[in-house]
Amino acid sequence: MASQLYSPMFIGNVKIKNRLVMPSVNLSYATAEGHVTSRVVDFYTARAKGGAGLIVIGAVGVDPDFVSPAGVLQLSSDDHIRGMTALTDSIHTAGSKCFVQLWHPGAYARSGEYGKTAVAPSAVLSGFTKETPRELTMSEIKKIVKLFGKAAERAKLAGFDGIELCGNSGYLISQFLSAKTNNRDDIYGGYEVSERMRFLKEVLTAVRRSVGPDYPISVRLAGNEFVNGGNGINDCITVAKQLEKLSVCALSITGGWHETGIPQLTMDVPSGAFVYLARMVKRNVSIPVIACNRLNIKTAEKIIDDGDADFAGICRGFIADPELGNKGMTGEYSLIRPCIGCNQGCMDHIFRMKPLSCLSNPDTYSDAMTAAKVRSKRILVVGAGPAGLEFARLAALKGHKVTVREAEKKAGGLLNLASATAYRKDFLKLVDWLVNSCIDAGVHLEFGVRMDGSDIAASLRYDFDHVVLATGSLPKEPDFPISSEANVFNARQVLSGSAQVGKRVLIVGSNSTAVETALYLSEAGTIDADTLRFLTEHNAESPELLRQMLFEGNRQISLLVRHSKLGRDIGPSTRWAQLATLKRRGVDSIMMDSIVLLDEGCAKIKVDGAIKRIECDSVVLCIGSDSSIPHFDEDAYAGRVTVIGDAENVGKLDAALLSAHKAAVEI
Ligand code: SF4
Q: What is the per-residue pLDDT for 185?
């Protein structure tokens, strides 16, 4: 039986064709003044065509005094209406409904971005910006309330089907709601959350006055702020019940604030981990509830079919694959380009004020080009890592006859190692998708075929018009002495499980591979999920001991860091969470000037000019990689050989995929 996810439902008087919502996300595609661009329209139109029932456009600023130059959309002036009208027209023509999320950053407005001190209910240091905002005066609050009302009027004129108020993630409305950030002793503060709701109620009244009695208004709330001293699920339920009485017609329930120490977006967050928040709210209201946070299409189907929520909000899934809804509806799950929770193109770009893109979907890069059909060539791709597969997929879609030869027995290259830790398995979803898409496009895949230089030259002479080298990289050679008795491995040997690593381990390096390797090795010996559940259910051990067993592995691990920031090449959305995990597991870092010698049972390092000896059983080298290309006379085949991915330039996964994508477009 088909999932109810694909059945229609009303929000207020607006019929949504299915239960799939694309929640708000800042694309940073607008102009510096917050106007809609053709890139904004194209992005959302593709998702509307791809099966999103409802798209929430946002965040959209209401305050002309707080306009981010980073391309955040605005409805703070009548001038914004025209562009927004073009956007809503295009979404409607493509078959979806659209709400606009009205937003004020409050304390989250970084002074460096906005050129002024942020404003907030109280002057409480922000855990997100690390800055202290200025407390709003009563008259300033009244002014902001009016700005929400005015923006709502413009939204209706621009053709939006409804309005969502941003009461989540730590922005202004949520700052008023929260016990952590609202210390006011006037009418906008209070001990109870129902007292701290006053600002939200006034905003609602102003918006309702602007849009009339029947126009849908929804509110997005943090089910739990997950910040010390902040609101929890019971506060959220209190607010939700009151909002229902105030004619709010839907609630979108998300997780914690941006400053929370509980990961919300990273790959280790299980799909649907925060659905319980929506379920608890839904039990207490009768208006539609939207569940969010790291949902994939199958989780979404289950949520709706189990009755945990009425709508499923999938944001990054729609970024990765605009056709997500259509493919889910027709059961083409294996062809859905997956969001793997890496944040490398989306959140990390947004946090750095760069336009949103997607690692999994190179089409989202502004300089990605459209692939046109061409005269067919016979192309050999050497290497079935992510770059080789991405090239092969797109080249085959263009009409080329593509063969991929891989030396190993399976596809994926380094992604197989990147997914070694339990919570990084989603990298394999990308590999699966690339393989499935290659097969679907008619690519011929051969495994266990090692190609040396003479094989490649022969292929060019006899069988293929063009060769693409996606041969990846090899670990760098160390530039320090290692005795023959030392027990030394590289990260690839460890992550592939082929190294016998001892109990006391030194990891040399500070890059993402070093962090991943430390996470992998420190996981060994910790309690697994089934055992934890069993012992907890039967109350077998104290919660303190169980918690300790979650972090206590069977190795003692230290990172040897050459005066560098640990994990410097990991994106801001993920680095803090990985380093916090290492800390909980007792992995420490030792700063050093250099390695003097890796010897049997020890490493001799130089620290502040003095030699220090550290006992260890094994050393793991994470000192980077060099491109690897088979040797042959490339000049003899000028114009018939292309090098992509790490083989061209060792870098991050998104760069490898983009280089493959561009090469396939150009060929
Ligand atoms: Fe998902 Fe990563 Fe793409 Fe973001 S960049 S949408 S997390 S796959």
A: 96
Q: Kindly give the distance from the C-alpha atom of residue 42 to the centroid of ligand 1, in angstroms, as a whole number.
A: 19
Cα-to-centroid distance, 661 and ligand 1 (Å): 16
Taking CA atoms, 567 is separated from 32, 463, 471, in Å, by 32, 44, 25
The percentage of residues in the chain with a pLDDT greater than 70, rounded to a whole number, is 99
Cα-to-centroid distance, 438 and ligand 1 (Å): 20
Query: Strand runs (DSSP E) across 275-370, as ranges?
Result: 289-291, 311-313
pLDDT digits (tens, 9 = 90+) for 492-531: 999 999 999 999 999 999 999 999 999 999 999 999 999 9
CA 182, distance to chain mean position in Å, is: 30
Identify the pLDDT of residue 368.
Answer: 53
Give the distance (Å) from ligand 1 centre to CA of residue 341: 5
Number of H helices, E strands in the chain: 23, 27
Per-residue pLDDT, 659: 94
Task: For Cα atoms 465, 471, 477, give the angle at the middle one, nearest 5 degrees.
Answer: 145
Q: What is the pLDDT of residues 582-636, one digit of tens each?
A: 999 999 999 999 999 999 999 999 999 999 999 999 999 999 999 999 988 888 8
Under the banding of pLDDT at 50, 70 and 90, the label for residue 365 is: confident
Q: How far is the CA of 320 from the centre of ligand 1 (A)?
A: 6
Strand pairing report for 444-447 and 488-490 = unpaired
Distances, alpha carbon 570 to alpha carbons 332, 342, 511, 557, 651, in Å: 33, 10, 8, 20, 12
Q: What is the identity of the amino acid at 291?
A: A
Q: Are strands 625-627 and 473-475 parallel, antiparallel or unpaired?
A: antiparallel
Q: Write down the pLDDT at residue 362.
A: 81
* Residue 632 near residue 458, CB atoms below 8 Å: no
* pLDDT single digits (tens) 612-621: 999 999 999 9
Asked if the model's pLDDT at residue 371 lies above 80, the reply is: no
Closest C-alpha residue for ligand 1 atom 8: 339
Q: Within 6 Å (CB) of ligand 1, which residues are found?
A: 316, 319-320, 339-346, 358-360
| The pair of three-digit structure tokens given for residue 363, joined into one six-digit string | 């089409």
Summarize the confidence of residues 573-590 as an average pLDDT: 95
| C-alpha span between 506 and 530 (Å, rounded) | 30
What is the CB neighbour count within 10 angstroms for residue 498?
9
Percentage of the chain surpassing pLDDT 90? 91
Tell me which residue has its CA closest to atom 6 in ligand 1. 316
Secondary structure class of 454 (helix, strand, coil): helix
What per-residue confidence (pLDDT) applies to 367? 55
**Rg of the chain in Å (alpha carbons):** 27
Peptide bond preceding 59 in cis form (omega within 30 of 0): yes
Q: Which atom of ligand 1 is nearest to the CA of 359?
A: 5
Q: At what angle do helices 138-157 and 81-93 cross, to 10 degrees?
A: 50
Query: Mind listing the pLDDT tens digit for each residue in 427-448?
Result: 999 999 999 999 999 999 999 9
The Cα angle at residue 79 between residues 75 and 85, in degrees rounded to 5? 70
Query: Which of 314, 319, 352 is the best mutation target for the ligand 1 pocket, counting ligand atoms within 8 Å of the beta carbon and taking the most?
Result: 319
Q: How far is the CA of 323 from the centre of ligand 1 (A)?
A: 15
Q: Cβ contacts of residue 5 below 8 Å, gap of 6+?
A: 18, 19, 20, 297, 300, 301, 304, 305, 312, 328
Our mutation pick for probing the ligand 1 site, out of 26, 296, 339, 361, counting the most ligand atoms within 8 A of Cβ, is 339
